[in-house]
Each structure stands twice: as C-alpha cells, then as structure tokens.
Amino acid sequence: MSATYSDIPVAEHGGRMAQGYSARMRDGSRPAVNVFQARGIAPAAGYASTVEDLGKFASWQFRVLHHDADELLSRNTLREMYRVHWLDPDWETKWGLGFSTWRADDKTYVGHGGSCPGYRSQLAVEPKGKVATVFMANASGVNSGLFARRAQEIMGPALAEAVDTSKQADPADESLEIYTGTYSTAPWGGEMAVLVWDGNLSIMSLPTENPLESMIELKKTGEHTFRRVRSDKSLGEEIRFDIGPDGTATRMWRHSNYDLRIVPEG
After folding, report:
1. CA distances (Å), 28 to each of 22, 36, 264, in order?
2. Is the whole model's pTM more than 0.70, yes or no?
C-alpha cells in the first residue's frame, strides 16, 4: 500500500505539530506540505515525537544500561537490540533490533533517523559516554545525520570534561568578549563568527558544515592585535580589531581588508 499526502493541514492536527516544508526549490523557496499519511507503513512512520521525549527515551536507555534499572526491558535485552544482526553489502550499514549502529572517532553509536515529507530527524546515542543527540528539522532536504554528528563532536567532549571532577576548568578570559560577534565578509563571502573557544579567541567562517574544522585559533600579540595560529602552532598573519566608543569591536582587519561587525537590531 502506498502512502499519500493528507488534505488536512498541520494547523488542524491539535496545533502542536510544526509546519513541515519541502526541500528547497530552485528559486530558494520551501513550499509547505500537508500532514503525511503513513497508512501501510504506520509501524515505521506513523507517529510524531518531540526533542524532549526522545531525550527522555535516551535517558531511559542509560538508566537500563548503567544502573540495571527494572524498566520495561532488561539490560541484556537492550544490549541485544544494540548488537549488530544485519550487515548491508557495503559493509558500512549495520543494524541491530530497531537500531542502527556505527563507529565514529573510536566510539560506538546507536540510533535511528526519521524521514517523511516535510520532516527529518536523527537520534544518536553513545551508550558508554552517556551522551545522546536529538536533531529535528521541519523541512525535507536536510541532512539530519550530519547535524547530529556535529553536535556530538562539539558537545560530547565538553560534557565529558564538565563531569570529570579530576579536572579544573581554566577561568575564561573575560577581556576577549569585546571582540566576539558576527562580522560581515561581503562581498568576498558570507559572515565570520568571532568567539571564545577553549579559552582562546577564534574565528569561524559561516556558513559551515564542520564548525570544529573551520575554527581558526588566534593568539594575542598586542593591544587589540592577534596572530593566526597555524596547525603546527607557528604564527601566521596579523588580525587587528578597531574598538568603538562603547568599548567593543566595530571591525576586524585581515589581509589589509576589514570586516564590519554586525550589530544586532534592538
């Protein structure tokens, strides 16, 4: 049985469901889509959820795995659901019972993606580290798996460090905050984010699909002056900031050109 679109608009489904949109058209628009009727594939796509509910679902798994909580399933049953039962011919796609499983950065993840017209989602659970990521988008043509992986890469180490009582985090250098913000790089590109990351001032080109790889660390070398830190830790070109009357940066100089800081409206 094939699934079809419903004639019932989202607004008439209790008012709680986010309006779904199609993949981006050639003119850049995203037409709205009506609610998808799963029908014959209702067991796989016949329900909707929220970020909060999937977060609770992940938290329940951690309780069962790490505390042997007597909640619906036993620890051994959940582990059996995680275990690889099927391997696709590409030797990359692996499935347990209701979960896919994969390796990334020497860690094992389990989870599942969601997809129907107008919506994309991904649940990625890292059982050993007890970190889970939930990503949801009310639009087609969105790589939900990529966004979930990036969130894990960025937040996972920070969360692990936060709960490690043996480590004392270095206090943030508040003097760097005057440079932070978003700078316009027109007409050369889009925007540049200046932020404090891992205790240092860094810049990052926007948009980006890989924030950590596009991050460039800066080292302060003088008053409102920095140098780019290369991958071998040597210093590159100079980056300088102009400071306005309110004490915050107004523009950033790079390669004899400047990028104006975007002041938020209001």
Report:
1. 11, 23, 25
2. yes
